[in-house]
Design goal:
Elements (H helix, E strand, L loop, with lengths): L1 E5 L5 E5 L4 E2 L6 H18 L4 E7 L5 H13 L2 E7 L6 H6 L2 H5 L1 H12 L5 E5 L2 E6 L12 E6 L13 H10 E9 L4 H10 L2 E6 L6 E6 L3
Parallel strand pairs: 4-5, 4-8, 5-7, 8-9
Antiparallel strand pairs: 1-2, 2-3, 6-7, 9-11, 10-11
């Protein structure tokens, strides 16, 4: 069971009653996505390439994906987007989200279509945005040297600690190409130490509202 609520920047998020956490920061869902994933991840990589493959760990509401599409349109990026979600939202939950109102009519159309697309297939949503939604647990992935950017948007370590431990973070490292970047809202010391252990170079960045820091991890080679 989930509860939709309005965050401080006016954008919606969802509170998961099962895990006792929200999908986004109460201080602003859109602002968090912009800071953690678009600015620190996508734009960081777009400084050196217009062709970017993205792996999203946690499709959730689809906010990260639709804002990435908006960025692709605005800056003429070519995005190949793969997103994983073991427990997709219902159509009723998706219909209540206000991202179309927040991002504009064009994005609302794409957002609705994005959620309607069949899973386990690649879809050319726009000329420069290819997306595949995969319905599976994060632990099941086995990508190798495939992605330029990872949006690591799993529930917090306090709710699902197994998603922040070495086996899965090693999978994230292996999934990235050399020079690839992983971004996450999490700045816990134990998580950063584990990211370093599997091979990442870590950078602490100013976090979105409500968080002092966030983490960017780069695979150097």
């Amino acid at each position: 069971m989930s509860l939709i609520f309005t965050t401080e920047d006016g954008s919606h998020s969802i509170f998961s009653k099962e895990y006792g956490v929200s999908y986004h920061s109460k201080h602003g869902a859109k602002t968090e996505t912009q800071t953690v994933f678009i600015d620190a991840g996508l734009k960081f990589k777009a400084a050196t390439s217009k062709n970017i493959s993205v792996l999203e760990i946690g499709f959730g509401t689809g906010l990260n994906a639709i804002m990435t599409l908006q960025e692709a349109i605005s800056y003429n990026l070519s995005i190949d987007y793969t997103t994983l979600e073991a427990y997709p939202l219902t159509d009723e939950e998706t219909a209540e989200l206000n991202y179309g109102q927040i991002l504009g009519a064009e994005m609302e159309t794409h957002f609705i279509k994005m959620h309607q697309l069949p899973w386990e297939q690649k879809h050319q949503l726009t000329d420069n945005f290819l997306i595949e939604k995969q319905k599976r647990r994060f632990e099941e992935i086995d990508f190798k040297n495939q992605f330029d950017v990872i949006y690591f948007d799993a529930f917090a370590p306090t709710s699902q600690p197994e998603l922040w431990e070495e086996p899965l973070l090693q999978k994230m490292y292996d999934a990235l190409k050399a020079g690839g970047v992983l971004t996450t809202y999490c700045a816990k010391g134990v998580v950063k130490r584990t990211l370093k252990k599997v091979g990442f170079e870590i950078e602490a960045l100013p976090g979105p509202p409500g968080k002092r820091e966030m983490t960017r991890a780069v695979k150097l080679q």
